[in-house]
Amino acid sequence: xxxxxxxxxxxxxxxxxxxxxxxxxxxxxxxxxxxxxxxxxxxxxxxxxxxxxxxxxxxxxxxxxxxxxxxxxxxxxxxxxxxxxxxxxxxxxxxxxxxxxxxxxxxxxxxxxxxxxxxxxxxxxxxxxxxxxxxxxxxxxxxxxxxxxxxxxxxxxxxxxxxxxxxxxxxxxxxxxxxxxxxxxxxxxxxxxxxxxxxxxxxxxxxxxxxxxxxxxx
Length: 218
Fold this sequence. Notes:
- The chain is of the alpha/beta class and 218 residues long.
- Helices cover 26% and strands 24% of the residues.
């Protein structure tokens, strides 16, 4: 599946990481050049610098051949414009848009090209399920036939992993930590990284269940 994500903030970047880990072709569009530079090493994700509200930027990012566009910026007006362009001008089959302000939710419908409107508080996994139309994921994300599962877990003050280094945590067989998102910035973690409350982890596994992953960290 070819996916175009507009907005490389915390949410957009997480979606890009999950969908690329599931072997989708992902393009991430961001207007902030500094943010684009920060994400230059993001694996298996094509980065495009520019304002996704501009048709030529969307075209350069591959909107004409995208199966799914996700408008994930922090501005509702931008997400609506992106959705309308994606559906009306580029004929994208499925468009999902983030709703940042609850009072604007009524705008996010087919009139603006939105197939799926997603409140900002929606968990990442649920958002991707809704955006992609996947129905067999429940809490695990299975978006490819490769058998790769991407599992999300968050570190809280009550988590047993809080304050511990990643290398000290026994992970289930066939499991790796793909990224640790801290203060909105994804990093590829080494064993010396010490987990803190507020960290969000994305793990890729061929064997482990969600319960086994959570048992290791919670």
